[in-house]
Design goal:
This protein has 61 residues and is an all-alpha fold. It contains three helices and no strands. The longest helix is centred in the middle third of the chain and has 10 residues, at 31-40.
Length: 61
């Protein structure tokens, strides 16, 4: 997430997104990602795994 720091009002540090991360909350995927996953017949879970670097073949990351 560091690449998003201070790129806009949502990712301002300190700000609501960073506060949620500090509390250990899981952030909702962006609307565009949800729509695209639906178009492709995929789940948002698969998107989240790809964005976090986790995968079924490499769950330790």
């Amino acid at each position: 997430m560091a690449y998003n720091v201070n790129t806009c009002h949502v990712w301002s540090d300190p700000g609501p997104m960073f506060d949620a991360i500090d509390r250990g909350e899981e952030l909702e995927p962006p609307i565009w990602a949800v729509k695209r996953a639906e178009e492709l017949g995929q789940s948002v879970v698969s998107w989240r795994e790809r964005m976090s670097g986790r995968s079924p073949t490499n769950p330790s990351i």
